[in-house]
Fold these 3 entries.
Entry 1:
Amino acid sequence: MEGEPVSALFTPALVVDVDKVKRNAQRMRERCHKLGVQLRPHMKTHKTLECADIMTDGSRQCIVVSTLAEASFYADHGFDDILYAYCLPLDKVERCAALSERLDLFQVLLDHPDALEQLRKRPLKGSRQWHVWLKLDCGNGRAGVLHSEPGSLQLAQAIAEADGVELTGVYAHCGNTYNCRGVEQIQTVAQETTNLTLQFMDKLEAFGISCKSSIGSTPSCSHPVQDMGKLSEVHPGNYVFYDVQQSMIGSCSLDDVAVKVLTRVIGHCPHRNQLLVDCGWAGISLDGSGKLPTGYAVIEGHPNLKLLSMTQEHGRVEPTSGPLDYSKYPIGSLLTLIPYHSCATAMMHPVYYVHSEGCLLGKWTPTRGW
Ligand SMILES: Cc1ncc(COP(=O)(O)O)c(C=O)c1O
């Protein structure tokens, strides 16, 4: 496989342009360096060792994960300073304890006193402490204690005062930047989240509590506001691949997208003015639905084509207008799909084929599960 062109691959195949991955990673590092904030990259988009090495510049330190499967996978391969940034699931306390007792620094996150109670009931061996981040909701509207609720400060205090537990930081994820269009809107949300987080830190300070602070998402960290430099850390992840969604938000250009799905024409259907391709929703995610004039993806180099619908292993492609010129798309010919959502699309592939300028370099194998 190595040295062959990507066109030699069986399809559908997820291909990763390693030069773009390295460029995206380098730009984010430089941006954070300039701001003076620690970058703690999230691994959820790719879940591979190779990409983690690129994102951490080989240090194998200071990462965020969304599942314990990722945490164990990275721990098994010598990574440390891992933050499991998912509100502590009570069925997984023992697995978190094992990682905390094994690594120099394994960190958990919570947003409920019941989770804190579970940690107190499971003291770590030796003189180890649980390292706990408080998840704060600054307008994202998903997990986290609401920044304005008195209970959020009380929970922070309870964590700070609990035996065997240390309040390591406050973590606010600004996923609401995904509703933005353009840099100005992104920066408005980034500024709001930063302000609310820093105000919360001031309130903690008034109680004599000091700890780290972190916000981040790919849109906000692609166009950070200056005040983000007052935070301790940022935690974006998708930026290493980017996708059509990010280009529509304004985080990147379409040329920055490092992952594509190769598919082949497997049928001509002139009675419907359509082509069939061998990529269905098992090969590219459905979440572009209704968001793009070109259907579920952008078909590279063919702005006139639309990925209209998919079943598990089939995709229907039609022209955006006029009759289809079938001579341009012979059976067996390749089309390249740029995914709307790279995290969801990568999740579907057991291996990623890595190339530089279309020449295959090898495979990356992601970890899976929870
Ligand atoms: C808790 C948390 N932190 C960090 C991230 C990374 O953000 P992004 O995917 O925008 O890079 C995510 C993404 O969903 C997240 O859920």
Note: The longest helix spans residues 183-206.
Entry 2:
Amino acid sequence: MKQRRIAILLGVLVILSCIFLYDRLWGPKSESSLDEHLINDFIKLYHSSGIHYRTRWLGIPTLENPCDMWAIQEIITETRPDFIIETGTYKGGGAVFYASILQNSNPAGKVITVDIKPQYDEAAKLKLFQDRVEFIEGSSVSDEVINRIADRIKGGKVMVTLDSDHHMTHVLNELRLYSKFVSPGSYLIVQDTSHNGHPLKTDYGKGPMEALVEFLKENKDFERDPSREKFLLTFHPGGYLKRVR
Ligand SMILES: C[S@@+](CC[C@H](N)C(=O)[O-])C[C@H]1O[C@@H](n2cnc3c(N)ncnc32)[C@H](O)[C@@H]1O
């Protein structure tokens, strides 16, 4: 009798599992879950093609994608910061891009960009870079770098974009240090929140997304602004933070 009951129970479990699997794989999907799959598949396709290694602004390589660049362009134009701080300069393409937009939205605006390794020699030949970009060599989280930035931006309206070492500990450290610089109404952009399976680089380990989630638990001055992801393709999902107070 007992064995029969167990067999029936197991049978029911197998049938329920089959129904669940069928529904997940072939069952009708809501429009939004279909869209989400489509978008994630496109982001993976875009990333796996390596186009971001062949993307340039005014001839200078940047690892950004055009949709995020456009979203950032809108943020700069709307908020007109006096200073844009970028951690992670790489070849300088991002810095030159921010400088080009600032040139029109705030002619006095400057970009301060930090990297442990200067590799921006091509960008440095551009007049735009010479006029508007200030490079600081060092780790973005070192006391020396933080003090230099704090001195430079005094009294200005500041926007920050974090794009250096993407491991969680480093990004969380940056978030705690650089959030203080961001002016109310301005943005703090946490780049590459797509790492660690969101939806890219599944084996990365804890990265910007995990840092961001932790940061938002402890700091109530910032809120995610999903309207900045309207172009659908983004490497920074949930990473556009607005300082609301
Ligand atoms: C993703 S790339 C930056 C891309 C650049 N923002 C762009 O738009 O093309 C990351 C850069 O962060 C730099 N980096 C790594 N660790 C760093 C740290 N602790 N402090 C500052 N920069 C760092 C690397 O040298 C590298 O150039």
Note: The chain has a mean pLDDT of 93.
Entry 3:
Amino acid sequence: MAGIHVHHHDLVDEGPEAIAPWLERIDDLTEVFVQVNDIYERNPSPVGVLERNPRRDVVLGQGRLLADVPASDLSPRLWQECGSETSEAGDALALVASSPIGERYRIVPWLNIANGQWEGAVDENGVVDLNGRVVPRWLCPNGPDVAPMWIAVIDAIVRRYGYTTYLIDRIRFPDWGGETVDPMNLLSCFCASCRGRMVEEGLDEAEVRAALTELVEAAREERFDDVVAAFATPVVERWIAFRQQSVTRLVRTIVDGVRAQHPEVELWLDMWPPAYSWILGQDYRALTAISPKLKHFPYHRLGGGADVQSLIDALGATPESRERAFRAFARLFGVDYGLSYERFRAGGFPISLVADQNARVRELSAPGTYIYSGVQMWNLPPEELFEAAVASYASDADDVIYYCYGWAASELIGASNGAREAAAERKSC
Ligand SMILES: [Zn+2]
């Protein structure tokens, strides 16, 4: 049944008692995904205000762990900065447990794994790009302390709060977005751990560097067809596979480590849609062999979960070259709907992206994987939310997760009621 994301600041500022009646407006809601650690993001993103928040119009995430566990004691080599004072930060996980929301819905704490404000041995665990630049605030899946840290933290959260299902997000290498747009983020990682593993796995680092340097040169000269072609060369394909194996190994190590202590605990996966997942290190086939449920976000308005526009604008200097960059992008990621960049900027991808991406997820995932299709619930009119929910229910996904409570205008909460039935009717016609 359907789920919805609720941010830490929603619960702390509004209080679960004030939020509960709003959630009750949504039919079929059974799961509430509660944020445990925030990311560097404007809430809501990129514009708008938190309509029902009595204290703040906008909240800027600071990459902190907002749970009542002693992060630096649990993992003294590497830890996430905690909310400075528990009283100020508030304990959303505790607040929600003893509230009407905790009584009525299954609470699924939502953890961002590789992106945040890290302390300790950050140099040994951070992501390094092709040019040797540290990608700020990102941990490398091959960092030696990353999995042990999360196993310890999740163990402590299970013991402290008793929740048995978790959604793990940001299980990947960095994308090009964030506070500043940088396509070079994608060309990582060359940290000491990754370089060591490349040797172990027979991947020639010099050859990889040469191929990626050529790719960068092609992008710089706006030879976008050559960029697409570079991704199909054997050396780049092997490097892409290396990145995917790195993420899979991280997830498997965390899942195995947590389950060794708590066999009842399930970790679900928060993925990028399959159009983009491969380039960020996410291999659906391998990851769904580890976890029974996943969520991905085939946002149609925002380019399928990705900030496509910022990338295209960064790649092309003129309107003409941006059109060419967009066409190459659409081909590389299999999202070619015959749109010009101008039309995409005005209206995003067509809503059929939702069905297409969910069909792809079903095809790539292990049999029996439970698939949640993320539905954008902010910065759009109510009828469009309804249509997106209908498209999701009519697709190969099993259910929907709305993103998110705090960002949504009040008129959007419950605007998708009846979508499941409408989708069933459409299917039977
Ligand atoms: Zn690395």
Note: Residues 127, 140, 142, 189, 191, 193-194 surround zinc ion (CB under 6 Å).
